[in-house]
Structures are given as C-alpha cells and as structure tokens.
Amino acid sequence: MLKRFWLWFGRVLGKLLLVLLVVGLVGWLAGEAYYGWKFSGPVSTEEAIPAGEAAQTQAIINDAIRIVEQHRDNTRVLRDAHAKSHGCVKAEVTVLPEISSDLRAGVFAEPGKTWQAWMRLSNGNAFPQFDRVRDARGMAIKLLDVPGTKLMTSPAHTGEQDFVMFNHPVFFVRDVAEYRQNFNAQSNGEKVTAFFPSWDPRSWEIRHLIIALKTLAPAPDSPVSTTYSSISPYKLGEANIKYRVIPDPQSCPPYQLPEQNTALPNFLRNALYQQLSLDRVPACFALQVQQQNPEHYMPIEDTSVEWDEDISPFVTLARIKVPAQDFDSREQNLACDNLSFNPWHGLPEHRPIGGINRLRKAVYEAVSAYRHQRNGASEATPAAP
Predict the structure, then answer these.
(1) Distance separating alpha carbons of residues 258 and 142, to the nearest angstrom
(2) Cβ atoms of residues 239 and 268 within 8 Å
(3) 80-105: string of b/e by CB count within 10 Å (b at 16+)?
(4) How many helical (H) and strand (E) elements, i.e. helices and strands, does the chain have?
C-alpha cells in the first residue's frame, strides 16, 4: 500500500516538475523574443524630452533634500549619494598622442596634453556604512584650468571639466519618471515598491531589480582596482558616446597590494593609503569612449540598456595616473567633502545628453547649493595639484 502511494506520488511529482520546466522554458523563450523585439534598432541620435519631466525633476529634488537631512552626520549635511569618500587624490590625465580625428574634441582636442585633476573615490550609499557592505562604488574626476565657455556659468566652476562614473555599465532605472517612482519609494523605506509599485504585473521592473542587485556588489580589493562607467551618454564633438575608466596596471610599476582587513569599516581607504602613501606606488587607468551606432539598439534616453561592445568597441583616449602622495589629511578630506562634481561642469563639446543627465543638472546643482549653505562652506575648488 505504502509502496503504491510513493510510486503514485513520484509520478505526480515528476509530471509537475516537467510541466514547470516546460512553462519556465516557454516563459524564457517568450521573454527573449520580447526583449529581442523591444531592444532592436534603429534608434534616434537626438534627445526626446517627455512631457512632465520638469515636474518629476522638482519632486526628485525635494526627496533628495529630505534624504540629506535624514542622513546628516550630526549637524553636517552629506551628499544625497556617494556620501562616503575613500579619498580625494591628485591625478594627471594625459591625452594619447594619436586619436581618431572625429574624437578630437573638448579636452581631447590636443594630443599629448596633460591635465591636472582631482579624483574622488567613494561608496554609493547616501549613508556612510562599512565598506564590506554590498554597494555601488563611484569615481568622479575634475580636470582643472580648462579654458573655454562652460555649460554652467557658476564662477566657482569656470575652469573645470567633470566626469562622473560608477562601477556598473548600466543604471537600474530607464528614465526620469521611473527614477521618481523608485527614488521616492526608497526614500520612504519601501524597497519592495521601488520595483513592484502595484499589484499589476505590467508595472513590475524585474529586469531593473536584477540590475540593482548586480550594482550592489561586494567591495573590490581597492578603489583603484575596478572599472567605472558613465552609464548615461554624452556628446564628444558631434558624436554620441559613453565613457568608462578601466585599471591600466601595465602603465605603472608592478604592485601587489598587501591583504587588507576587510572587517575594518574603512578598509578601502586603508588600501588606497597603503598603495599611494605608504608604499609610494602610483595607480594607473585608461579613459575610454564608446560611440553610439544608431542602427543598433543604443538608446540615448534609456540608461538601463548597455551598448553592445561587439558592435561598438571602447577606444582609449587618455591615460590617467594617480601619483604616490599623502592625501589623508584633515584639511584635504574637508576640501574633498566641499567639492561639487557635476557632469554639467564642463565644455559644450562634452554636453551630457538624455533624461538622467538632464535630471542630474537640476538635482546636483540644487542639492550641492543646499548642502554648502547648510554646512556654511564655499564651493571653491582646491588649488591645482
């Protein structure tokens, strides 16, 4: 009797598993077909500003200011994102001697030119937390003494060209409207509704949830051992591009970082200090760009889509060297905290494009002004290295 029951139960369970396997396979094939159709070219080479974006942007600014007040350090107001710095370091950005003529624009117009710069390395969260916690990691670069008329007319930033990146090739929202919904939910502590805003499955953002989970990665061994991407597109002269910064150890002396104690809250700062200040070994990167091919699905307005490297490979335009230096002083850390990085601090030849970049212009400027006003600090950039 018992044997017959288990045989019957085994057959039922086997059929159920087979049905689930078939349903899963059909669902996967349907998803692949849908996204293959949805993510197919051609795409526009121009921006498309949706109705209501200005109102969405103002609502995001209000939420961002609410977040910086919630996460302030005693009375000091921190950034609404990338609040924790691993250090601000001096850097040199040298344009390669030979660059394709169609990419010689802006700060890359003069082959062999070396720009002095500040580089800020950070965690992504709005609240300073232990480095071992899964998080995004950021890199911001500010080139100094850059001549020419800038996109923003603030006197404090007339000589700057900023590049802002983090360590994932895509963003977990597509546009300003989705960012508004996601950001508002997370600022209210409602992480589930950030990606599942209603009971309607059509509103669920499962693909974007997967991107967010991939973005919250374990900490690298060091802030100078990972790749940082612009996520959103920019102009480079007449071309539409994305850029990234990758480690370039072969351009620096060989170096093996000693094993770090990852239980320490600030071990990424310690790793940076170990290499640059104690062992006196520089760090090297390559700055690269990827051009849009509008015949394929390389959209301007959707930052959740990665541009295919097989279709449009990255090309190196400059080398970045972070020389050995002493950076971890109270004065330099405070100056770093008062720095403002904004992709709109720069030349028209590097104009940010797309909805997320339009959002950045308003939000970064508003939150920066609010933060400096609350902290009683100026926006003056430290002197050139």
Answers:
(1) 29
(2) no
(3) bbbbbbbbbbbbbbbbbeebeeebbb
(4) 8, 9
Q: For 339-380, where are the alpha helices, taking DSSP H only?
A: 355-375
What is the pairing mode between strands 137-143 and 161-166? antiparallel
> In whole numbers, what is the pLDDT of the chain averaged over residues?
87
| DSSP, res 257 | P
Give the gyration radius of the chain's Cα atoms: 23
- Taking alpha carbons only, the member of 187, 68, 80 closest to residue 124 is 80
* Residues 39-375, CATH architecture: Beta Barrel (2.40)
Residue 249 φ/ψ, nearest 5 degrees: -65, -25
Residue 262: which residues within 8 A CB-CB, separation 6 or more? Answer: 131, 132, 219
Q: Could you report the per-residue pLDDT of 315-344, keeping only the tens digit for each?
A: 999 999 999 999 988 888 888 877 888 899
Span 51-81, pLDDT tens digits: 999 999 999 888 888 876 766 665 555 555 6
Taking the model in full, what pTM does it have? 0.86
Closest CA to 289 of 318, 319, 315, 320: 315
Cis peptide upstream of residue 42 (ω within 30 degrees of 0): yes
Residue 94 or residue 360, greater confidence: 94
Q: What is the DSSP string of 284-326?
A: EEEEEEEE--TTSS--SS-TTSPPPTTTS--EEEEEEEE-S--
User: Of 144, 156, 137, whose CA–CA distance to 222 is shortest?
Assistant: 137
**Strand bridging mode 234-236 / 228-229:** unpaired
